[in-house]
Specification:
mainly alpha, 140 residues, single chain, 6 helices, 52% helix
């Protein structure tokens, strides 16, 4: 499931901007594979942060996740340097995602989609049965 679509990018940035940054073959139409790659990269970045607190895949795409996906994808499409406002949107999205990972921002998802909290500072270990015990070494 993609967190954003080409239509979302166009709604946010406008058809002209998306055509300028995603039409690599200069036929006047955004290249589907270029857009898909940017959207996939945004999904991967988002999943990396969201997975710290939520079970993936998300059952539904919360509006803020869609916004972050659009901001990240749009930034990635500007391969020769993004304008300041696009770069700022990208930085804001990454900052918000870091807050999600830290638990400072909660996503409006179903309660069963939240991963259980860590159990604290418990260390667990497993080891094989001891081979050389005092009883087995008696007499040596």
């Amino acid at each position: 499931m993609s967190y954003a679509t080409l239509e979302d990018l166009i709604a946010r940035a406008g058809a002209d901007e998306i055509r300028q940054v995603a039409d690599r073959d200069r036929d006047g139409v955004p290249d589907a594979d270029v857009v898909a790659a940017a959207l996939a990269e945004a999904n991967n970045v988002i999943d990396g942060y969201v997975a710290a607190k939520y079970a993936l895949p998300l059952a539904a795409v919360p509006p803020q996740v869609n916004t972050w996906a659009v901001s990240i994808s749009r930034y990635r499409l500007h391969r020769n340097g993004a304008p300041d406002y696009v770069e700022q949107d990208y930085k804001d999205a990454i900052s918000a995602l870091k807050d999600v990972g830290r638990g400072l921002i909660a996503l409006p998802v179903a309660p069963d989609a939240v991963q259980p909290a860590a159990t604290g500072n418990t260390v667990m270990a497993s080891h094989p049965t001891q081979v050389f015990t005092p009883e087995k070494l008696r007499g040596w």
